[in-house]
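Encoded backbone
================
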Amino acid sequence: MTAAPTPFRLAVLPGDGVGPEVTAAALRVLEISLQSEGVDLLATPYLIGGAALDATGEPLPKESLEAARRSDAVLLGAVGGPAWDHAPVRPEAGLLRLRAGLEAFANLRPIRVWPGLEEHSTLRPEVVLGADLLFVRELTGGMYFGRPKGVSGQVPRRHAVDTSEYSEAEIRRTAEMAFRLAQERRSHVTSVDKANVMATSQLWRDVVTEVGERFPDVTLDHCLVDSFALRLLQRPGTLDVVVTENLFGDILTDEAAALTGSLGVIPSASGGGEGPWLYEPVHGSAPDIAGRGIANPLGSIAAVALLLRLTLHRETLASAVEQAVGRVIAEGRLTPDLGGSATTESVTEAVLERLVVPTPA
């Protein structure tokens, strides 16, 4: 007797705000994609963020983290919102714990200006047309995982300190991933730091340079973060793979949304260690539009394409999802964040209608 095929185990963390809405859209696309190759999807929801705080008092319950570690991949919606502004623990702490618990030391954020998006960018269409770059952000070190020290209400003044710390090993593994990914793209890495001021950035530049010497087929250039912020908006077409530390990467990838016109179309993938990869859109929980059915699902759907490519190694399926997303954008089926009037449901249906996947054998 032939054993039944093992289902693909997905831990689903819808989170807060519009998170459940865009996650549901992505799951529909993933399930249909996998069905085309006879793969069953076993998707199980768990709590994270504000929803977890309300239910358990913890932003990432132990059950959620353990389930995520046991899964083949993790799909996240969004966390946070003003409802928890004064909570003893921030909902975002759950996301930081999840990344650390999965050993997700690198965050990949592809920024692609699909044909049709250039008209919705805040920049001139000819500046952003055809821009296609990939950020590789170090995710588990630096300022966000430093040692904060602060005392509030001191007389005569208040005072606070945040520390940033990096080891050679942390930088090296992130840089190696960036160079390997560049070999699959256009063989150019831009490393972003603040080496003229910060000791951690001086180490960053030294280590990235050493790693680059092992990849002679990849061109490396270094850029200070302030000048890079301008370059990103003026000459995005000159960029291929961008590697940078945690804080800079967080800021610059949000800035890059100016190229696409909205954070709503940008996906991300986090991983690199022993744990499964974590997939999510880069936008926040957008509580002001939660429940109204107008959240942009394309970032979460594009994250499904990353999952198909990086975890399942189904390049044909990944490309099919991306092509469907591209067609929907080109046809102008856009949610209000991009100036359109489409709903979350109608955009998801449009993607599914344009999704061309292999017929099951």
Notes: The longest strand covers residues 8-15. The chain is about 40% helix and 20% strand.
